[in-house]
Amino acid sequence: MRRAIRLGGALAFLAMGAACSSGSSSHSVLHQPNSGWSLVFRDEFNGHGRPDPDKWMSKEYNRKNNPEGPDGWWLKDNVSLTGWGQMEITATRIPNRNPEEDSDPFDYASGMVTTEGRFKHRFGRYEARMKMPQDPGWWIAFWLFADEVHKVDGSGEDGTEIDIVEGFGWTDKISYALHWDGYKKHHKSVSQRDFRPGIRSGWHVYAFEWTETEYIWFVDGEEVWRSNAGGVSKVPKWVKFSGEISTQPEVAHKWWSNKPDPKRMPDRFLIDWVRVYEKDAP
Fold first, then answer.
1. What phi and psi, each to the nearest 5 degrees, are found at residue 264?
2. Which 3 state secondary structure label does DSSP give 259?
C-alpha cells in the first residue's frame, strides 16, 4: 500500500509539473479578454520526435568552425519534442565530424529550428515560454530573421535581425539586440544587456512587440527595452530558436558564452510554447 501511495503521489506530481509547464497562460495575451491581439501562429510542441515539419525546419552544418579547436555544429538530431509538451535543443559533445579537415579530439553540437518557407510575419506580437540552459559554453536565442538582413543601405528598414532574447547557462545576464546592414564591414547593431537574478531558474515568458515605428521587449510581462535603431524593419521575418556553441576566443569568454565544459554535457534549452499575433484593426 505504501508503495502504491508513493507511486500515485509521484505520478500526480509529474502530471502537475507537465500541466504547469504547458498549460500556464501567465504573461501571454492569448488568455486576456479583449487584448487587441489575434493569434496567427502557435505551437504547443506536443508529441514526440521531430517538431512539426509543416511549421519548422532545421539546418545542419558546421555553424562555428574553429581551425584551432573543436567546431560547433548545428545538427537536426539535437532538436526534438520531449513528450511533455516542450521542444528541446541540446548541447552535446560529439566525435570529430570533419577529420579530413582537422585533428580535433572531438566537436560540439547544438541545433536550431526556423519557420523559413512555412511562416513569416511582419509587425505584431511574439511570445515564447522558455527555460534557460544550465552549463557554460553555449548560448540560446529566440529571434526573427529574413535574408534581407544582408542588404546594405545604411538602414534597417529593409531588413533587421531581431534578437528577442539571447541567454546563457552560466550567468543570469540576458541580451536583446538588433543587427542590420549585413554582417561584414558595414554591419551595425545595438543591444541591451539585462542582469535578471533567477532567470535561469524555472520558466519565463519572453515577448516582443513590433510596430511600424518601434520595437518593445518584455520579460514576464515587464517592459525591459524599447528601440527604433536603424529604422524599424518593414520586412516579414521567420521565427527561429537556436543554440550555438563556439570555442573561438571571440565569444568563449566571460563576457559572452564562456568556455564549453564537455564533462558537464549534455545540457538543454526548453521551449514550452510559441505564439505570434497580429494587432486587431481599430
1. -95, -10
2. coil
Q: Is 7's pLDDT higher than 90?
A: no
- Confidence (pTM): 0.89
Among the ranges given (105-119, 219-233, 239-253, 267-281), the one the predictor scored with the smallest mean pLDDT: 239-253
Q: What is the pLDDT of residue 175?
A: 97
Cell numbers for 268, please give them: 538543454
155 closest CA partner among 194, 132, 181, 173: 181
Question: How far, in whole angstroms, is CA 4 from its chain's centroid?
Answer: 40
Please compute the mean of the pLDDT values over residues 125-139 and round it to a whole number: 96
Q: Which three cell numbers stand for residue 263?
A: 564533462
Mean of pLDDT over the chain: 91
Give CA–CA dist 193/267, Å, rounded: 23
SS (H, E, C) 78-89: HEEEECCCCEEE
Task: Give the integer Cα–Cα distance in Å for 261 and 258.
Answer: 9
Helix (H, G, I), strand (E, B) or coil at 23: helix
Q: Phi then psi for 260, rounded to 5 degrees? A: -65, 145
6 SS3 class: helix
Spatial contact of 73 and 63, defined as CB atoms under 8 Å apart: yes
Phi (first) and psi of residue 189, to 5 degrees: -160, 160
